[in-house]
Amino acid sequence: MSKQPPHDTARRLREFGVQVTAQRLAVLMAVRDQPHATAQDIAVVVRSEIGTISRQAVYDALGILADRGLIRRIQPSGSPARFEDRVGDNHHHLICRSCGRMVDVDCAVGETPCLTAADGMGYEIDEAEVIYWGRCPDCVARSRIRSENAAE
What we know:
The chain is α+β, with helices and mostly antiparallel strands. Helix content is 41%, strand content 14%.
């Protein structure tokens, strides 16, 4: 993903009706640069960019950005919330059970097949959240190496 200069990011905030502050700019840029990061991870990045910022200010900025649709909040079971700026499409996520790595994965068939529930029960469905769990290629390879070394 190409990095937007701060003035483009400020314009984007304004387009979504969000007041531009140094904290919000830094949080949005951190989410863009670190997809699937936790609020704590984002706070570390923001502090390195602008100095002191409270944890609550980071949470507040993330909340506003998610509420306005600039970022997406992902809440995997048993994990802290993670944030990304890939919004407006209906993609899903793969999460490694071993190392926690999360990556994007597009819908398997068509554009939004998961939005067709077997029984929508009268709801107007506009989003589905699918999370696939397993082990990433790096963890699978490490496991194989450990198994091979143990067999020797």
